[in-house]
Prior knowledge:
The protein has helices at residues 20-33, 60-66, 78-81, 95-103, 164-173, 178-181, 219-226, 239-251, and strands at 38-40, 46-48, 115-116, 125-130, 140-141, 146-150, 255-258, 267-271, 274-279, 285-290. It is an alpha+beta fold. It folds into two domains: 60-161, no CATH class; 168-290, no CATH class.
Amino acid sequence: ARGGAAFPSFTVLYARRPIRGERTMARRMLVAGGALATLRSAAGVVLKVRDEDPCACRNWMDTYATTGVKCGMTNEYYFATRQHALPEYSLGDFNGLKDEFCLRFFEAINDDYCINVNMGVDRGQWCFVDAACPSLAGGDKVNGQVSWKMCSPEKDRMLRQYDPPALAKLATEQHLELGLMNKMSYPLSGYKWKYVSGFWGATLDELTSVQDVLPGATVDQVKDFLRPRWGKRDRDIDDEMKKDLLSIFNSGVPTTFDTAKDNHPPHVIVHGKTVYVVIPNYKPSLLCVFGCQH
């Protein structure tokens, strides 16, 4: 692994490619349903798909598959463009982002939770709604069928409301890649982790077991892999940085830190006093390394 000891148990890939059959089957189910408000399971149970409230968040996969909305026309590329809307003819300029962000993330989400507008400084979270929704809270119309709105924790299910273990579980259940999903769920700090880890007093000494998360790996292998990305416990932190980090600590909102220049995993997620690491692997895994509740 770059920047650390060789770690043969890790295949450092940023994203899990979805199983083709899973996405194809889900899309066909949704498209076949069209404008229907419900789908019927094989057992005859009626499954609710949409709330009749026009301001209720829409299913992401369904929206892209049935309403003419193209991924990239709204906030999907905001982190790169700083724009909330792009004309369809310009989407080809961003084909380098399409596979990772559209095909393997936004278009693969068979759910209706709210996602970060930005990957970086917190700009809130958003979702698609019916065009009839009168309360977009800063959002805008996309086409005759769909608008997008800014979400609120009082009314909507937001990914940032999931703690890191719950988010990791959701990513696994929905076949989404945790290395990207955590950045589209939580604010991303501008500080590299090795320069701020001392603020949390975080060391790797508390890491005593990895088998539940990384079968076949040893604790020493994981420590050797992470150590170059970890700072000294007694590193000096200036007053401005301390103020920023204290705000993160007190916010109660999980926050992500990059550990490498390429911004790929491993990522560190802090939640209060607890420090987690998103470990790169074929299926990135979440490992609690400091302040863990055993």
